[in-house]
Every structure is written in C-alpha cells, then in structure tokens.
Amino acid sequence: MANTTLPFSASALPPLPSYTIQTLPPLLPWISDANLALALPIIAYWVVSMFFHFIDEMDFFPHYRLHTPAEVLKRNHVSRWDVFRDVVIQQIVQTIVGFALAWIDPEPTFGKEEYDIALWAQRLRGAQKVLPGLLGLVGVDATGLSEKMGSQHAMLAGALSGGVYPQITQTIVQDGIAMTAPAFADWELSTAKAIYHVLIPAFQFILAICVVDTWQYFLHRAMHMNKFLYTTFHSRHHRLYVPYAYGALYNHPFEGFLLDTLGTGVAYLASGMTVRQSMWFFTMSTIKTVDDHCGYAFPWDPLQHLTSNNAGYHDVHHQSWGIKTNFSQPFFTFWDGLLGTKWVGGDVSARYERARIAAQKKVDADASSSSVTASTPSESTNPNDNLRPYQDEASNATPSARSAQTVTEPHAPPGKAAQQALGSRQQILDDRDAGGVAVLAEESAEEMKAQRKLHQQQQSQVQASQPQTPTQQQQQNQQSLRRSSRKRTTSSGLKGFADRMGESLHGKSSGVLGVDSRR
C-alpha cells in the first residue's frame, strides 16, 4: 500500500473517525433496558421501605425517630392497607406511562462513541484558536511565548499558538491509500473523554434534578394554595400526619400521575438521558423520596446530609402548623428559600426524639439552639420577616383558625412564622373529612407532652450536676405545683377549643365560632 502525505495546513483540524451504529444489547439478557428502568424504581421503593418498616417494627433506633410509634397509630387518619393499595395503584400508572415512553423512544444503539469523543476534541482544538487573541487583549504575545517554550513544553506551546501541533500526526487510509494527517494531542482526547463520559452525564443529571424540583415545587404549592385542589386531591397524602417510608407515594391517583410520574418523565425527556442513565435517575429519585418520608433522622444516612431537604425538613410540612410551608421536594430547598415558603418558626425539635436525646447532654441554651429544620436564628426570631407569600393569611383565616392559633401548640413566634402557622391550621380546618379540629387537638396534646418531657429531662440534668439545699428543694416543689396548674389550664383551653369547634361544626354554637360554621 502506498504511503503519502495528505496536504494540510498547520492549523487544519484532525479528521473525524468513521463509525458503525449497532443495536445495544440489554444489560440483562432476559429483560430489556426499558423494562428494567421501569422495574428498578419499584423494587428500590419496596426494598428501602421495608428496611425502614423493619426498623419500625423491631424498634431498633428509637432515639432517632422523629415521632413515636404511638403517634403513628393515633395521629394518622388512614390505615396502612389503604396506603399500600394507593401506592400500588400509582406504581401501576407509573409503569403504564413508562411503557408509553419506551414505545416512542428510539432503540438504544452504540458504536458512535469514538466519533463523539473526537468531535469534542475538535471543538477543543477550535477553541484554542481564539487563545492568542484573548491573551493579546491583556498584552501577552502568545506567539512569541509559544516559540520560546516550544522545545521544552510542546503541548503548551501548541495551545498558546492557537492549537497548532505540527509534530503530532497520524496515518489514515483513504481510497486504499495510507496518508499522513494531523492528529489530536493526548490531553485533547483525555479532556474530550472526560467531557463525554463525566461532564455531560453530570449536567444531564443536574438538569433533570432541577426540572423535577421545579415541577414538583410549583404543582405541590398550587395543591396547597388552591382550596379545591387541596381538598379534592392533595389532602389524601396529608392524612399521614406522621409519615412513614412506604407512604411516600400515598397520593390521589391523579395527583400521583401529575406530580410524580409526569414530572420525572418530563425531566427524563428534557435532559436527553439515555435509558441506562434513567435507571439511575429514577431509582435515585425514588430512594430520596422514601428517605424523606422515613420518619428517622439518622446521622449516618448520607441522603439526610447531601441537601437540607431531608426527613426533618419535610416532616415540618406534614404538621398542622407547617403544612403550607416547605413545599420543595425531593432534592433541594432552592425554591422555598427564593420564594419565601420555607418554615421560619425556628426550632421545632421538641417534637422529635433526636432533640430529646440532645437535651440529655446539653443545658437549656444548648438544646434550644439545635434545629431539625435548619432554620437560621434570624429567620426564627425576626418578626419583621418578609411576609410574602403569607401576607393574606390573617385576613383569609376564619375565627376558628385564629382561635386555634391562641390555644394550640406549638406557639409560633410573631411575624411571618405566625402567618405560616395560621394559614396551615386554616387548611387543616378546611379539610374536615381528614379530621379537621381533631387533628389540631391531637397534635397540640402531643406537642405539650413532648415539651414537658424535654423540660423534665433538662431539669433532671441540672439537678444531677448541682447539689440542692433544703430551701432549694422546697422552691422546686412549689415550681412543680405551678407547672402542674399551668398544664391543667392549657389542657382545659385546648379541650374547650375542641368542644367549641365541635359544636360550631355541627351548628350548635351561638358564639363567634358558630358564625364560622356558616361561612
């Protein structure tokens, strides 16, 4: 075979290789990649859910629970069987939509990888052509500098000269004749491979995450801000006031399709992922969603620490005082922070076992500084926070909701947090089928119980570290009597509120709350 030199200038681009497209064989011979992408999220959902369910049943880590087992039984307004049934229905819908996507997706192929990598290397070579001009803008003679370092740093000299590498050539065959042509530098090919195999997939994953977060935030928020959407569809999910793992996808079927199935499908199409990439993305999203509803704050769970959107953050959204806050899911809290819907009521950790454990090791000041919701002190205590989007909650609230705000626990600090709690409690009262006032009464009782236990633990720690005189012991007994009196007063106020609300909702009251029942 004759060997000749292909005429080319020093700045010519290396030629791109030829390629042959072939059908990509499946990862597993007995199932297609498309079907595997549908099966993996469902398998992951139940494997991870059953892991947390097993921990629940065996009570292995009670000190990391966000809620006690008694709360799961008493405060939730839906049976575990109903939750299981609705989750299965959503997964059936999810699978049907997945089959439809697989039908319109092109058949997976391979064989073009080397061509695509070379194409990126060509783009890198083209980008180098503008380097001398850019350096010239800051007074650097790139050509002269390239000539000086050419013998010792050939690659750097070639880049500075605008991507000129006359010493790097390759032999190609064209029409049966071997020819010499320009070639790519090793660093160009290595960088192109990193772009193709790492940066582009990473960008696709980040884009898909942003699409899912945006889709779910605005639809989720709309479900709470619109009374019809909430009471008709989304209130079903909030019958789980104490979330648990396999209840993560407990939704109205229409909401499950719109919020979860369609959202991830749009993210998949918008990001241009391959089917195999979608396996990772769909499975990761599913595991993250389950973890956010698991009811545990494990310090060794990486998903609890990768972002601030974790089980503690989302649990606030499931409480009667925070139901109109913390809409972001499942990955980041960007939209909550940007649009002012993040809970700003400060530390609510008295409800959580994690805070009770911390209380055994710290004094009052230390314990009150820890927050499961990651709220900053300025957010928690500043009554002049920007009220958007809660500025209308006070005017829209019924007298019942305002009454609940004064007698139920926890008391939110003044300002934006109080408006958030008021709007959230109004939404609970609007959803009478899911419990209404009973939910507020139950939750407030649990809150007071948790706060009393927390206070007792703190007092015990202080007493153990400080010996008491008889006079101090007598003062402590008097304080205990006063606390007992306050407890009865608060409980009476709560019971009175529940009784008045019950009468009002049945049209038996002639007081202010009775007016509310006719609105």
UniProtKB/TrEMBL annotation:
Residues 393-408 have a biased composition (Polar residues). InterPro entries: Fatty_acid_hydroxylase (IPR006694), Sterol_Desaturase_Related (IPR050307). GO terms for molecular function: iron ion binding; oxidoreductase activity. Pfam families: FA_hydroxylase. Residues 359-425, 443-519 are annotated as: Disordered. GO terms for cellular component: membrane. Keywords: Membrane, Transmembrane, Transmembrane helix. Residues 366-376, 456-482 have a biased composition (Low complexity). Residues 497-506 have a biased composition (Basic and acidic residues). It is found in: Membrane. GO terms for biological process: lipid biosynthetic process. The chain crosses the membrane at residues 34-55, 194-219. Residues 205-341 form the Fatty acid hydroxylase domain. PANTHER family: STEROL DESATURASE. This is Fatty acid hydroxylase domain-containing protein.
